[in-house]
């Protein structure tokens, strides 16, 4: 199978107006409608597909043929429980041939994931981010971080190839806003980076032949990754909160990602909630991040506690915190008891501005959902202004893999949007 | 011309997924593409239309014929400056036959407006909202308010008919979130209303035969009304701030209105910006509304100052404030000097969450733009985190007519979305 070698940006940017429709575009649009319908709602018969999409049965048959030729859908037997007669056949997403790859480049870890068209994780790998401890503090040396990121991507590409998967695209998630036009990281303050040409640097390291590479912010990808789970509950308006060193929000409204005009939406870590609050490294006071960032938890521990070490995998650091809590560490217990009220101060603002139906807690918020979920839900319920409806608080189902999973999903968007991008299977 | 009699809701709700495309729908979609193109970009030749929309020249000619038959477009001579030869013809929006009507139902005034398809105001009327001063304070008696609103709508309909305009729809804007499914006002706390079946009550008062009647929140309509002005500067991400007794935000992201899952987006008057701030009537502390609402200005005046009287037209109350300021009223000068910092505390949060390219000041903020605009712009510039880009602050160009103008625009959306809704002109 062929691979395209290019570093583009603006994953499915959605900045398109209504376009006029010709006959070739009509066929392509209808292929997309069918594939999306199966992707969203699961396998069903041709007759059901025709009924639900409004396409004629003849059109459905012809379009399904095109999709099957590209290994995007397959036919299978339906098990009908409790009925007599021969089993029907249904059309389903074919998970065997097409995949997307996502890489999260975080302050604490690099996580890569390969997902097939059915959304199943085919490969995952997480390693600590290279960090230098200097007398002045921590720094994240650009070269080694990029080298390791490229190595992770190469490993994922090799795994996909070994499993017979054509890769639709690569999406890389830095912890900060992205310049979609140039493929650079505008600012990743917790890494100490600004205006890094990330797409070009990774593309160069990968060599000439690689699938299209795009950038998207970590919080936005995590929101996209959680969206299908919530869509199954008919929830299309949600806010995902990253719980890392910083706090970012991924916003989805009416099923669409809200990026902001320059990609800076959801930079909520520095909303000022208290003019008399603690000083923030950004220069303001009472920023949300000072109240609920991961550092606000680590700060209560001894300086050399292993949970504070950036050299250790994040899973081990979280496990260490859990052990301390289970051993009855009073400082941590106190911190986690105060956390819900501070979380709700910021989350309440997001509810008033955006009116989401769901808030998803990611990062360490999600890892300690057993302690945080109920008090956060109760405090949000208590502050409802009027019958705006209850906001459902849940923990991320994807944990530390959320942004990488979202990246793989965004890469697969390329095929859902235009199924003709996938190559015809060789016989 | 026929009029439809129904009270529906959810003006152009935008909750549609990708739909499959058949041939009839294709024609209807292409009529909409052409009409929107002319509506957004102004008159142009058939050749230019074909080039810009990607439609064939033959299709454009045929589609323009359909649109002209319904009085939506017309042909005219182009004046070519500095060129020789016979003048070309161009296709333009025809403003003579189709209109929309918007009514704002505010705490202080009822404003109605008729706008034609070219966006020109054909009729405007503003009257003070009926108010009862009781020992307990002010109340807004439901029956008299609804009667007056219906009277305003009847007057506007009669004006439209007298001018030969077919009315595509009526949009009514209460000062609070709307239940789109039932056509009721969920809560209008400053009117003391909750769960008022506004669409049904007005529809009943208008009688059986009237154009479709929809509800939409005032801040959201105002944002929609200002959007075309900003779109001409290529700005598609904006926040409109109502500056009334309460403060609400209308949010437009990538050209689309963000409603929130239950219509409660932009309820920003009660975001808590200071745990030690003044008590709000909502029960919280340090709400943005307590810092910048119209009452925070009126409160510095004598109790019986005419500016505080709800019996007077809003324009007169604003004029009174202006006179006091010009006479050097020290209390007002001090209040207006403190206002920008308080405005930016809330606006800054909206910038961090939404990353808009523009903030539009409405209501009394807009009326005193000469005092507020520059300091607000400077304070927002000073708090930029990184190169997220400068937010342009401007005053509403529509002033107290903004929500009514937005309502008329939403009503006209019905025709832009499906031009076949407009009746064929009688010969």
UniProtKB/TrEMBL annotation, chains A, B:
Low complexity: compositionally biased ranges: 1-19
Region (Disordered): 1-22
Domain of life, source organism: Bacteria
HTH marR-type domain span: 34-77
InterPro entries: ATPase_NBD, HTH_MarR-typ, ROK, WH-like_DNA-bd_sf, WH_DNA-bd_sf
Single annotated GO MF: DNA-binding transcription factor activity
Cross-referenced Pfam families: MarR_2, ROK
Protein family per UniProt: Belongs to the ROK (NagC/XylR) family.
Protein's recorded name: ROK family transcriptional regulator
Organism expressing this protein natively: Brachybacterium saurashtrense
């Amino acid at each position: 199978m062929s691979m395209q070698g290019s570093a583009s940006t603006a994953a499915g940017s959605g900045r398109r107006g209504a376009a006029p429709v010709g006959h070739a575009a009509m066929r392509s649009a209808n292929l997309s409608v069918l594939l999306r319908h199966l992707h969203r709602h699961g396998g069903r018969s041709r007759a059901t597909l025709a009924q639900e999409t409004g396409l004629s049965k003849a059109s459905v048959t012809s379009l399904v043929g095109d999709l099957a030729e590209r290994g995007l859908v397959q036919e299978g037997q339906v098990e009908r429980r409790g009925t007599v007669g021969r089993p029907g056949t249904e059309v389903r997403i074919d998970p065997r041939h097409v995949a997307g790859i996502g890489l999260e480049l975080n302050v604490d870890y690099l996580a890569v994931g390969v997902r097939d068209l059915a959304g199943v994780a085919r490969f995952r790998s997480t390693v600590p981010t290279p960090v230098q401890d200097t007398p002045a503090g921590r720094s994240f040396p650009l070269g080694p971080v990029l080298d390791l990121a490229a190595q992770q991507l190469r490993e994922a590409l090799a795994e996909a190839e070994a499993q017979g998967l054509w890769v639709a695209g690569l999406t890389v998630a830095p912890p900060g806003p992205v310049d979609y036009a140039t493929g650079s990281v505008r600012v990743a303050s917790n890494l100490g980076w600004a205006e890094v040409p990330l797409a070009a640097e990774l593309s160069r390291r990968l060599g000439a032949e690689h699938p299209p590479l795009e950038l998207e912010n970590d919080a936005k990808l995590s929101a996209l990754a959680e969206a299908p789970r919530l869509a199954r509950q008919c929830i299309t308006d949600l806010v995902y909160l990253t719980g890392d060193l910083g706090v970012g929000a991924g916003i989805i409204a009416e099923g669409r990602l809200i990026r902001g005009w320059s990609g800076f939406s959801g930079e909520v870590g520095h909303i000022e909630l208290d003019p008399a609050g603690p000083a923030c490294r950004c220069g303001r006071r009472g920023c949300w991040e000072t109240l609920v960032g991961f550092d606000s938890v680590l700060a209560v521990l001894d300086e050399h506690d292993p949970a504070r070490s950036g050299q250790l995998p994040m899973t081990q650091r979280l496990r260490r915190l859990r052990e301390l809590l289970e051993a009855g560490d009073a400082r941590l217990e106190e911190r986690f008891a105060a956390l819900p009220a501070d979380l709700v101060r910021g989350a309440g603002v997001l509810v008033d501005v955006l009116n989401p139906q769901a808030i998803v807690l990611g990062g360490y918020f999600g890892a300690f959902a057993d302690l945080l979920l109920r008090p956060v839900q109760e405090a949000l319920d208590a502050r409802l202004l009027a019958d705006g409806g209850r906001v459902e608080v849940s923990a991320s189902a994807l944990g530390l893999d959320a942004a990488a999973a979202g990246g793989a999903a965004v890469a697969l968007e390329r095929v859902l949007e235009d199924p003709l991008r996938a190559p015809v299977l060789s016989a």
